[in-house]
Please model this.
Amino acid sequence: MTQSTTRPTPRDDRAPHHRPCALPQDRGCPYHPPAAYAPLRDAGPLSRVTLFDGREIWVVTGHTLARELLTDPRLSSDRQRPDFPAPTERFSRVNQRRVALLGFDDPEHNAQRRMLIPSFSLKRIAALRPRIQETVDGLLDAMERHGSPAELVGAFALPVPSMVICALLGVPYADHDFFEERSRRLLRGPAVADVERARNELEAYLGELIDRKRTDPGDGLLDELIHRDAPGGPPDRDQLIAFAVILLVAGHETTANMISLGTFTLLNHPEQLAALRAGDTTTATAVEELLRFLSIADGMLRVATEDIEVAGSTVRAGDGVAFSTSLINRDGDAFTAPETLDWERSSRHHLAFGFGVHQCLGQNLARAELDIALRTLFERLPGLRLAAPAEEIPFKPGDTIQGMLELPVTW
Amino acid sequence: MRIQVDKERCVGAGMCALTAPDVFTQDDDGFSEVLPGRAETTGEPTLVKEAVRACPVGAVSVTQD
Model:
């Protein structure tokens, strides 16, 4: 009696009608797109990919086409649409509740965004710079007191944006362990139940905070929104909670990843780091190129609401469309020698913050934080280096925002 | 030539003011506008051209008078 007959037949990869490339995939090196995406780059600006559930969708890898389609109102961000593509199992189950801003189309999206735009203006961000600098200095003081070595994600990369977004929103930083843990589970699960529980806990916490602020106002963005004296009045409680969740999560996870992965990348590019230290380029210029090179938010999703004739193909109503930022930002037609980290190039037209009406609202806050954090880190710790072999340092899987899980350093 | 920002379309990304700060600014509410006295131009300065390209929603334009 043998049980071997119940074994599945091994899949034949040489079959002529094999499935298109899977998306998302893990990176092999944390600052390069997955090697397995190579066929997508060679196939032109628009290809087919397969999601975890077997569904085939389109993927945009060309820079010009990405700009065109990210401004096309026939592509929807509404995650409640039944055809909206799910990049992961955990994402597919939490679609029922829409994330503020990201999960809406205009005109609802525009109405939400317009309430928040004043808080993210260049003037407001410039006024925050001394506070960001103070935060960065304080964390580096603590690292120096504690002494080398250190784990840079926990000691620096995560607390910088976390403290800054708390100050901006008016959320007590004392609760940071609580919401950092919930944010991490909200974005990474791993199980669907983890995501749902994390979101419930975060919403309950922020709801209580908002209730307290009604009678005991502070001086953050949430306080401004609660006590807003504008036509239409302040947003309701659920709306305030939804804003707080997205701003808190987007405000620290993304920038934390850019700081950790940016530092790792600089330490692996000694020539570019030396040029930066010598003042051959400004940190602001380097940050822009790092945003392009690293493309940490890789794989924005949309669904077509009408047929769209584009790049010699027809994207049908109901088709899913992914935008591979890491490939778009390495399109040779838009960037010369795109595989090279190059301070001399003009990289400002990268799409690391997206494009169209959903382009990142907090991008200038992120620029200010990255400028101050990276400049001060390398000024204060000129001997900074990795405390473990680069290839042994763990980084995030491909189904979430890219960055380092840990970053052991010494100086 | 006339440089214009469509404030209805503006989403407050600040790309124009970041790219060409001598020409564009943001009002107190974070929406972009052309600095006083900078709307009229002969030709299209490189940075203005870049600002037009950088705007994520096509709110910045340069038109013939």
Notes: Residues 1-16 of chain A have pLDDT under 50 and may be disordered. Chain A is about 45% helix and 10% strand.
